[in-house]
């Protein structure tokens, strides 16, 4: 094994450890979103608060809501990556000015 291969394997192992260890250290923890935290805080500040806006579409289940969120994140990442790639590659294909 070359030195670079060993370094890559050690770094991959470190990444896996960093990703897996917190899952076991926080067993039984609930991970709530910002919406839930905000609604709890509003309820503490002003009990009985009635919202003045309703959602346009209410997903049928939590899985569909997660799917829509992932789809939105994927599309956003794709657009961001496309734009960044175009900006970087544009410099390579521009005629050189003298």
UniProtKB/TrEMBL annotation:
Pathway: Cofactor biosynthesis; adenosylcobalamin biosynthesis. It is found in: Cell membrane. The chain crosses the membrane at residues 7-25, 66-88. It comes from the Bacteria. It is a multi-pass membrane protein. Keywords: Cell membrane, Cobalamin biosynthesis, Cobalt, Cobalt transport, Ion transport, Membrane, Transmembrane, Transmembrane helix, Transport. PANTHER family: COBALT TRANSPORT PROTEIN CBIN. NCBIfam families: cbiN, PRK02898.1. Belongs to the CbiN family. Forms an energy-coupling factor (ECF) transporter complex composed of an ATP-binding protein (A component, CbiO), a transmembrane protein (T component, CbiQ) and 2 possible substrate-capture proteins (S components, CbiM and CbiN) of unknown stoichimetry. Part of the energy-coupling factor (ECF) transporter complex CbiMNOQ involved in cobalt import. This is Cobalt transport protein CbiN. It comes from Ruminococcus gauvreauii.
């Amino acid at each position: 094994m070359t030195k670079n291969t060993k370094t890559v394997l050690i770094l991959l192992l470190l990444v896996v450890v960093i990703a897996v260890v917190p899952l076991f250290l926080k067993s039984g923890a609930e991970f709530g979103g910002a919406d839930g935290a905000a609604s709890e805080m509003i309820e503490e500040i002003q009990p009985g608060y009635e919202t003045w806006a309703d959602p346009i579409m209410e997903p049928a289940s939590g899985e569909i809501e997660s799917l829509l969120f992932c789809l939105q994140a994927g599309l956003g990442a794709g657009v961001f990556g496309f734009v960044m790639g175009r900006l970087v590659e544009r410099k390579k294909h521009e005629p050189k000015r003298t």
